[in-house]
Design goal:
The complex is a heterodimer of chains A (266) and B (430). Chain A is of the alpha/beta class. Helices cover 42% and strands 11% of the residues of chain A. Chain B is mostly helical and 430 residues long. Chain B contains 17 helices and no strands. In chain B, helix 3 packs across helix 4 and helix 5 runs antiparallel to helix 6. The chains are: A alpha/beta (266), B mainly alpha (430). At the A-B interface, helix 2, helix 3, helix 4, helix 5 and helix 6 of A face helix 8, helix 11, helix 15, helix 16 and helix 17 of B.
Chain lengths: 266, 430
């Protein structure tokens, strides 16, 4: 590929070795690290962070699962082992502020780590994007135009209902001058993609339909050109749903970070 | 004088029986584990006023909201009328508050309008349940008793309101026939006047019969509450007061596990000694917190939780309403066991498996839709996750793919089988 390049993303260890302290830690998460589709979101977030000149770092190979799927599945031991190891690491680097693209990591570090001794300012990437747009550091210009495109946004449960973040992701889409169409079940009434509570890692129980198909049926009713996601798990479930109807050509499933990166030509 | 005496006896007996039964329920709720829920009293009071008193979460379903509002306001405000009836009954007076004059007329008029509202509301509720068959009121857990219970409540309320209006109508007609100045204002019951006989004695009998039917009916209804989902008219208030004030995504921390994990990571750490052997997670009622049990007794079986549950919508076995109903049924069963044996004697049953199946708990996506939907801040999700904790930590029984995920996290620090060393490889590919 012609535009192939290695993104310069330092780790906390590398930064420390140089005697530098980043403004913010980018918590990549397991999906963002290993899932091929989610890796593209991860890279776009790095591009955005570099573009606005924010000094950031990742933990790299030192990062470990936050323990979210273990906790939701009922394995408190495993959750706490993960949590305590991560907290020790984060506290060791004196991390103050964390941004993450995964609502599950976001929720766990923000709400559950403080109970185990890990106090950080945690934001979801949608909140960071909104902040950058508000500050005028990010504009939807110089790249692909989303003007007038029909976009429907799917609320991730762990961002919306769990933490009341409904407006930030919508603000990033409003900046595009796109046509935002809401599904019938949105915001606090949003319907789960079917992956939370460790469902991502198991076959669904018998029923008449898969949850992501129910969700995609509703999303497709809005006749969208883009379905916007803000969670790597939702991304997988929504994409599978679109594939199920062979609509990959007509309907794109994109993370709000990808949309923002494209709109800015990054 | 005799009627006053009879009234006093009935009244005292009804209150005593009600107190006796409520105390039993409170004792049952106290079977749960301790949980601190008395911090931030201001915020709690606000939540209660907004959610229970202000009905804020009901507005999501406008039709049900308006109908329920009629019945709710009727219930709350007609209590002033009840006060008068009780004083009249005990003191042998008739319309003791009549001295309030215009204000009294205004109040009686309000009660009449509200009575009509309750009547219409209950009638439409009956139609929705029995003729239109609103989907929410059906489901595997809605067996014969829950449906009968709902219908009984609605019919009782309709009868009580008819008695109230007939009583007023008879009183109004008597006053008119006697050519007295009319005490009270009867905007609704005046329509019934022509249906009544013009004979004073007959009117007096009708008025007394309705009066007695109304008050005895109300007292009987009060004593029906502890056996019914209708208990929510009382428990909705404490239940919202003791609501979870943390973000919905914050699942409670297990301190017992924390001590063990700390000791594992740091051999010098000595966990505080505990008197009781700790069970991890929830197998039966005694492992739940008192708030979970209060939730169960508060549940009105309205099914808003189930109708928004993604698992239930897509035909899976899980129904959050059933989780609450099972929890209450099992608590009541244990309560009876204690009444019978003095102490709980093992009956070989438990909440998990005998009431709630594994298939149900594993179908949950922990999306919090049920918690969001409940008009009285009940949390079925917490019970589900706590049952999972028992299955995992006490029994090691999980779907095999879940065990594989645990293994991956333990060995590779990620739920998928990728090497920790490859975690940052995404930097090199594009």
């Amino acid at each position: 590929m012609s535009d192939e390049k290695i993104i310069q993303v330092p780790t906390m260890a590398e930064m420390l070795a140089k005697g530098e302290i980043p403004e913010i830690l980018f918590w990549v998460g397991c999906a963002g690290s290993f899932d091929e589709r989610a890796q593209r979101i991860t890279r776009d977030i790095c591009k955005i962070l570099s573009h606005v000149g924010l000094k950031f770092a990742i933990l790299g190979t030192e990062e470990g699962c936050t323990g979210d799927p273990a906790k939701r599945a009922g394995n408190e031991f495993l959750f706490q082992m993960q949590a305590m190891m991560n907290i020790e690491l984060l506290n060791g680097y004196e991390v103050k502020k964390i941004v993450t693209a995964c609502p599950h990591c976001f929720n766990t570090i923000k709400n559950e780590y403080p109970l185990l001794g890990g106090q950080y300012e945690v934001i979801h990437h949608s909140q960071l994007l909104q902040q950058l747009i508000d500050e005028g550091k990010l504009k939807a210009s110089g790249g692909e135009s989303f003007k007038g495109k029909r976009i429907t946004y799917h609320d991730p449960c762990y961002l919306g209902r769990s933490n009341n973040v409904y407006e930030a992701p919508r603000k990033t889409l409003e900046a595009l001058d796109a046509q935002l169409v809401e599904m019938k079940r949105c915001r606090s009434n949003g319907l789960c993609c079917g992956a939370g509570g460790a469902q991502m890692f198991k076959e669904p129980e018998p029923g008449k339909k898969d949850i992501n198909i129910e969700r995609i049926d509703e999303a497709l009713k809005t006749e969208p050109e883009v379905i916007a996601a803000a969670c790597p798990f939702c991304m997988t479930m929504l994409r599978d749903g679109v594939k199920n109807y062979n609509k990959e050509e007509e309907v794109q499933v994109l993370d709000i970070a990808e949309i923002t990166a494209r709109a800015n030509g990054l | 004088m005799i009627s006053q005496l009879i009234f006093a006896v009935i009244f005292i007996l009804a209150i005593a029986l009600f107190t006796y039964n409520i105390r039993k329920i409170v004792r049952n709720i106290k079977l749960g584990r301790p949980l601190k829920r008395s911090d931030r009293p201001k915020e709690r009071l606000k939540t209660m006023l907004r959610v229970a008193f202000g009905q804020s979460k009901m507005t999501k379903r406008p039709v049900a909201f308006v109908l329920h509002l009629f019945v709710y306001l009727g219930f709350v405000i007609i209590n002033i009328e009840m006060l008068e009836i009780v004083i009249d009954g005990l003191a042998g007076t008739h319309r003791v508050f009549a001295g309030l004059g215009i204000l009294y007329n205004f109040l009686i008029a309000c009660f009449e309008w509200l009575a009509l509202g309750v009547l219409v509301g209950c009638a439409i509720f009956l139609i929705r349940r029995n003729i239109i068959h609103v989907k929410r009121f059906f489901g595997v857990e809605m067996t014969k008793w829950p449906r009968t219970d709902a219908n009984l409540i609605l019919i009782a309320e309709i009868l009580l309101m008819i008695a109230f209006l007939s009583m007023n109508a008879a009183d109004f007609k008597m006053q008119s026939l006697n050519q007295e100045t009319v005490i009270g204002s009867f905007p609704i019951s005046q329509w019934l006047v022509n249906l009544l006989p013009a004979d004073l004695d007959a009117l007096h009998i009708i008025e007394r019969c309705c009066w007695w039917f109304h008050i005895v009916g109300v007292l009987a209804f009060l004593n029906y509450l502890p056996y019914s989902k209708h208990l929510h008219i009382i428990f909705a208030f404490p239940n919202t007061y003791f609501s979870n004030l943390h973000p919905k995504g914050q699942f409670s921390n297990m301190e017992s596990v924390q001590h063990e994990v700390k000791a594992m990571l740091d051999p010098s750490y000595t966990p505080p000694s505990t008197d009781q052997p700790v069970r991890f997670g929830v197998k039966d009622i005694q492992d739940l917190t008192w708030k979970n049990l209060l939730d169960a007794y508060t549940c009105t079986e309205c099914g808003r939780c189930t109708s928004v549950c993604p698992a239930n919508i897509t035909g899976k076995l899980l129904s959050p309403r059933k989780i609450m109903m099972d929890t209450r049924d099992r608590t009541a069963e244990i309560g009876k066991n204690i009444d019978h044996n003095g102490n709980f004697s093992d009956d070989g049953k438990a909440l998990l498996d005998d009431y709630i199946s594994r298939e149900e708990i594993w179908a949950c996506t922990t999306c919090n839709a049920c918690v969001e939907a409940c008009p009285v801040n009940i949390n079925p999700l917490e019970i589900i996750v706590n049952l999972r904790q028992y299955a995992i930590m006490e029994e090691s029984q999980a779907p095999s793919s879940i065990n594989a995920m645990f293994g991956n996290i333990e060995n590779n620090g990620a739920p998928w089988k990728y090497a920790q060393a490859d975690r940052a490889n995404w930097r090199e590919v594009n």
